[in-house]
Specification:
The structure is a single chain. With 103 residues, the chain is mainly alpha-helical. It has one domain. It is 63% helix and 0% strand. It is built from six helices and no strands. The mean pLDDT is 81.
Length: 103
Amino acid sequence: MTRVRSQCFQALNEVGHYEQAIATGRKNWIFCWTEVGAKHAGIVQSLIATCRLQGIDPYTYLVDVLQRVGQHPASRVAELTPRLWKSTFADNPLRSDLHTSTK
């Protein structure tokens, strides 16, 4: 029982480590102006933390998904979550126009 509890605490600490990578106590995050703005900031932070947990570059993921979301079937929206995106689209992600101009 103690070993299982220790493993649970270790997993929670690992998740907390990824969530703390974004400085939420700084002045720029204190005020989101509205409750909706705070909710959206939390969603973006959660996506970034999930990408890091899955070993995905958050920038590459967000660029791909934001380009893909308008043409992707709504019935398969789960494929755009970081875990499923990694196995489905990560090998050939859509890139921004800036990607080619900076190289």
